[in-house]
Structure formats: C-alpha cells, structure tokens
Specification:
GHMP_kinase_N_dom, carbohydrate metabolism, 11 helices, Ribosomal Protein S5, domain 2, globular, transferase
Length: about 450
C-alpha cells in the first residue's frame, strides 16, 4: 500500500487564537521563564501535542502501519535560543512540572553524552538528545545557547506520549532559532524532524521506540486521523465520515497506572519481534524484511514447521508476538476504511479485536486496563474499546455515541473507584493540530 505524503503548509499561530488550555500552558511557562532568566527580549514559543493511537499498536518499530490523532494535551517551550560560532554552547532548562523547579544546565557540542538513567535530572535527556540532533546539522564550530522554560499537561506515563510532545516542542523551538540565523538552511520535512526526535529518544533516553509518537506530534492536523506507513514514512490525513448527529466520538480514560517504555517489557517485545523476523526470513526468504511483510499464513507456517523432526522453528511465545503484529497491521488498514465510510460497528469490532490481541498475544495489558476496556465494551452506545499506547498501564480509547459520553465517563469512574479505589480521569478527544510556533504578541 502506498500512501501519499501530505506535509501541511506553514501557518502562523497566535496565542490569542489558541484554546484556553494552550494559553494556560504558555502563560505558566512564560511566568517561570521571567522568574528564572534575565533575558526577556526576543522570546520564542513552540508547542507540540501528545497523541492517542486509535489502532495499530506495537507495529511502528517493525515498520508497519499506525493510526493516531493529535490531542489537546500538549507541551509548551518558552525562551530564547541563539546559534553561536563556538565549539561549545550552554543550554539551561527549567520545568513547571517539576516538584521543585530548578535550572538544569548542560553543554551543547558534538560529543554530548546523556545523564545516567538513575540521575535525578535524567529527564533532561529528552531535551539534550534533541539539541544534539540539531548540533549535528549545524556547520562545524557552531553551537547552541538556549534558555527555556517548559510546561506540559500530557499525563506522564499515561501512554499519551508526553516524551514525544516534549521532544517535538523542543525541536520546533530550535528550528525557529536556526531559521532566524540561517534563513536558507534546509531542515527537511516534518518527517525529518520526527526522525531526529526519535533518534534522540532512542540514543539519549535508552528507549527503543518507533516513529509514531514523534511523527503524529509533528504532523497532526485538525479533524483528521493520520495513517502512517512507518517504512516509507508517507502518511495520509483521514477524515472521519460525517454521519450527522449520529457521528460517535472517542473517549480517553486514564487508568493512572504508570509505565515507562524505556525499561521493563517494552525492549523485550522489540527483541522478540526481531527474533520472529529472523525465523520468518529463514522460512520465507528475502520477501520478509520485517514483520510488516509477513502474512498470518507465513507465521502459522513458521510455527508449525519442524527442522530435522526437532522443535518448531518458532516457539509458542514468539508465535504469539508475531501473530499480534501481523494481524494488527491488517486491522489498522481495515480501520481506515471503516472510519471513512462511517461503519462504526466494524471500527469498534476492530478495536475490540486489537485489545484482545494485545492482552493475549502481545501481553502488554494489565488488570486495571482490562477492567476499563471490558466495562466500556458492555456499556450501551459503545462500539469498541481498547488499550492505547505502549501498554503496561496508561489509557484506554473508546468509540461511543456522543449522546452517551457523559454517562460513560461517570460509569467508568464509579466502577473503577469501587474496584481499585483509584481515579480514572476521562475526556472526549477530537483530532487536533500538530507542532507549531506560537506568536506571543
């Protein structure tokens, strides 16, 4: 399948035109900046959103298909940045979201290194990694001086891509400064920005994430889902069919079970997919470059095939991992057809199948998430519900009739509190715009 690359045009965004939630983020970041740093002239601002993935989970790092939307929860960067003709620059960052905000400093140069994961300031690696990616683009003997304040409202560890929102906001902020200093500098397309941010997370944060989170944060567009081909990096803006008053909406529910994809089971799944790919290549030949190329029949063949009457080439565990990825790619492409045609029943069924596959075959769900999904699936007016994001906690996404949103949210909160004595914030989500510079005046 070939998607058409559709980078959005450059637009001018003004703070006064933004939603109140974005204005609040920017104002909080601006206040902390003014309270922390002396330089108050030539201040820039950039914002990038988190995301919710409608379907297509754990397919991006095997170069398959994903189908996310940008959401209103975002991260804002406010401050100053300049390109200096020196071998080394200095970056200072501070975050509103820290328990006790303090300035963190690091040098910008071509031999930058991340802080150890156990360092209390290691969150700054998400910023430093992005700075490093842009240092590599600049002419030799140039560096970056930067002072920024950061404020975000993407819930941490929720599976809504708080890390990507931070990375892409910083990258957008840096590109503003680079374009001022070098007006003709070629920074490439938005997908190139996404690739730089992915590299930053892979190399500075020890997280083997795929491209989806950074890509949608860069390229999201209002009222559209984004179908991304993670191999070609082409994407298609997909508008939900307009069925009038009967058009359903997506509801996000946060389990408040935290996860970190930089450790634990996520890297294990990446390795298991790599192992499955090698086995499939031994059975099917050069046709298989990644799991994206395999069919369910290929996976079944590798699972059953025996070598010299010995054990199956693909054991039961690796079989289940490969089965999820292969069937999830098909579900994602089918979901696009259902969304554009207004076949909400089919779209919901695909969501339900996706969750069962992640629960049983990929084993990335948890009791709390399963409870929220099953409770939503049984609720009148719901078409489908599933885990969204990397898993091991985080959020669910549910397709529900708009008239039932309030009742669904109240029901989920009541049942979840009774079962787990915990809160599960819920909100309706509509596709929002991607990363952008915001004019403060």
């Amino acid at each position: 399948m070939k998607l058409s690359s559709q980078p959005t045009g450059e637009e001018t965004y003004h703070l006064s035109d933004e939603a109140p939630s974005i204005q609040s983020l920017v104002e909080q970041a601006k206040k902390l900046y003014d309270d922390t740093f002396e330089n108050s002239s030539d201040i820039s601002c950039a914002v990038a959103p988190g995301r919710v993935n409608l379907i297509g989970e754990h397919t991006d790092y095997t170069l398959g298909y994903v189908f996310p939307i940008g959401i209103a929860f975002s991260t804002a960067c406010v401050g100053t940045c300049s390109i200096v003709k020196e071998n080394e620059g200095e970056c200072k960052i501070i975050s509103v979201n820290s328990d006790a905000p303090k300035t963190i400093s690091f040098k910008s140069c071509r031999d930058m290194k991340p802080l150890p994961n156990d360092d209390k300031d290691s969150w700054s690696n998400y910023v430093a990694g992005v700075v490093y990616e842009y240092i590599k683009l600049l002419p030799e003997k140039t560096a970056i001086n930067m002072e920024i304040s950061i404020c975000g409202d993407v819930p941490l560890g929720s599976g809504l891509s708080s890390s990507a929102a931070l990375e892409v906001a910083v990258a957008t902020f840096l590109e503003v400064a680079i374009k001022k200093e070098f007006p003709n500098f070629d920074l490439g397309e938005k997908k190139d920005k996404a690739l730089r941010c992915q590299s930053a997370e892979n190399n500075f944060c020890n997280s083997p994430c795929g491209i989806m989170d950074q890509y949608v944060s860069c390229c999201a567009s209002k009222d559209n889902a984004i179908l991304i081909d993670c191999r070609s990096l082409d994407f298609e803006s997909v508008r939900m069919a307009d069925t009038g008053d009967e058009k359903p909406v997506f509801v996000i529910c946060n389990s408040n079970v935290k996860h970190s994809i930089g450790g634990g089971e996520y890297p294990v799944r990446v390795k298991q997919c790599a192992e499955a790919t090698k086995i499939l290549q031994s059975v099917c030949g050069d046709r298989i470059k990644t799991l994206r190329d395999a069919t369910l029949e290929d996976v079944e063949q590798a699972h059953k095939k025996r070598k010299d009457e010995g054990p199956a080439l693909m054991d039961d565990l690796i079989y289940k991992r490969a089965k999820h990825v292969v069937t999830e790619n098909k579900r994602t492409l089918d979901a696009k057809k259902a969304l554009t045609s207004g076949d909400w029943k089919s779209f919901g069924a695909l969501m339900n199948e996706s969750h069962e596959s992640m629960r049983s075959d990929y084993e990335v769900s948890c009791d709390e998430i399963d409870f929220l999904v099953e409770t939503a699936q049984k609720f009148e007016g719901v078409y489908g519900s599933r885990l969204t994001g990397g898993g091991f906690g985080g959020c669910t996404v549910t397709l529900v009739d708009k008239s039932r949103v309030k009742d669904l949210c109240e029901h989920l909160k009541k049942e979840y509190a009774a079962k787990y004595d915990n809160l599960c914030p819920c909100f309706e989500s509509s596709p929002g715009v991607g990363a952008r510079e915001i004019q403060l005046s």
